[in-house]
Amino acid sequence: MFSLFTKHPATVNETYLQHMWFALRYSFKFILCAIAAFIHAIFPFLFTTYASKKVEYLSKWVNTRE
Asked: Residue 14, by phi and psi: left (phi above 0), alpha (psi -120 to 50) or beta?
């Protein structure tokens, strides 16, 4: 049972807690992108490039840790 929580984090050289912290930060950044995109949908003059630039950054951030 314990291996269910440690197998995947080990593939990226992290402990369970390190991986949990990374995933929480990652998801929070996506939540911010979703909020910015929602605001942009209503007010197209706000956050014109925030979400797309942040998603590009997040992609690079994840790909450099593997």
From this structure: beta
